Amino acid sequence: MNNLKEAVEAAAERIGPNILETPVVEAPSLSSELGCEVLLKLENIQKTGSFKIRGALNKVLQLTEAEKAAGIVTASSGNHGAAVSKAAQIAGGKVDIYVPEGASPAKIANMERLGGTVHVFGSDSGKSELEAQRVAKETGGTYVSPYNDPQVIAGQGTIGLELSRQVPDMDAVIIAVGGGGLASGIAGYLKAVNPKIETIGAAPAASAAMIASIEAGEIVEIPHDHTLSDGTAGGIDDDAITFPLCRDNLDTLVRVDETAIEEAFRDLFRNEHMLVEGAAAVTLAALRREAPRLKGKKVVLVLCGANISPDVVKSLL
């Protein structure tokens, strides 16, 4: 993807009036525990409850009237579908969303509340993505990928642009990695403006397709188990443009287990007063693994979303 920095800066101008520039706050309890200065980028308070509105809006705002009239089709475990629905509210258009079996009821309700039509298909997000792509091709609609689209990646990269202004002296940033759209955008932008920043990609061990692919040197299929981090679960497209971006711009890759993710969720809620979903908790779980070598450093955790079922919250607490 050429000129990512310029694409991110253009996206920031385009979507700025319709999103929040989310704050960065200190995490004193975590800083004391881990011996580094921990900062939280609060995409969990972003419109629609996650960072996804950035990429979706950047994409939908660039569709023609004819493209919007033909329909917008997407696949999502929840957050991206809600974001595309919200983007269509703003820019116009009708949205059909394909979600995997077992998708969060809270996220499905959020998508429907925002005007999306939800279709359940497939046992994981990779299968629902293939079905959405097939439907879009068959109907002449526009498929909006959760990650495999340069306009979506540029939108997510606006978080990196904000961080470069908000925390210009950061030493490291930790980003949850699923399909790689968020990590590609943030890490790609930050490496363009300051290559010294360490970019750390984190994923649940139960479903870490991008990390496995980077380690293999090519996109590979792996088994996927249930994970609290449902927003990062599932496989990636064979032609994913996020693969080379993550490979080239992520310095460190970290897998974390479910116990660590659950503990991180509880600590963010109880000690930092942050309600987050599993994918956001992955970043803290990863920091705990990497903390010994990050002593004294300034580390930003991107809390990517807060769309989590009340029943899950109750069980975790």
TrEMBL record:
<dbReference type="InterPro" id="IPR000634">
    <property type="entry name" value="Ser/Thr_deHydtase_PyrdxlP-BS"/>
</dbReference>
<keyword id="KW-0456">Lyase</keyword>
<comment type="similarity">
    <text>Belongs to the serine/threonine dehydratase family.</text>
</comment>
<dbReference type="InterPro" id="IPR036052">
    <property type="entry name" value="TrpB-like_PALP_sf"/>
</dbReference>
<feature type="domain" description="Tryptophan synthase beta chain-like PALP">
    <location>
        <begin position="18"/>
        <end position="305"/>
    </location>
</feature>
<dbReference type="GO" id="GO:0006565">
    <property type="term" value="P:L-serine catabolic process"/>
</dbReference>
<dbReference type="Pfam" id="PF00291">
    <property type="entry name" value="PALP"/>
</dbReference>
<dbReference type="GO" id="GO:0006567">
    <property type="term" value="P:L-threonine catabolic process"/>
</dbReference>
<dbReference type="GO" id="GO:0004794">
    <property type="term" value="F:threonine deaminase activity"/>
</dbReference>
<protein>
    <submittedName>
        <fullName>Threonine/serine dehydratase</fullName>
    </submittedName>
</protein>
<dbReference type="GO" id="GO:0009097">
    <property type="term" value="P:isoleucine biosynthetic process"/>
</dbReference>
<dbReference type="GO" id="GO:0003941">
    <property type="term" value="F:L-serine ammonia-lyase activity"/>
</dbReference>
<dbReference type="InterPro" id="IPR050147">
    <property type="entry name" value="Ser/Thr_Dehydratase"/>
</dbReference>
<dbReference type="InterPro" id="IPR001926">
    <property type="entry name" value="TrpB-like_PALP"/>
</dbReference>
<dbReference type="GO" id="GO:0030170">
    <property type="term" value="F:pyridoxal phosphate binding"/>
</dbReference>
<keyword id="KW-0663">Pyridoxal phosphate</keyword>
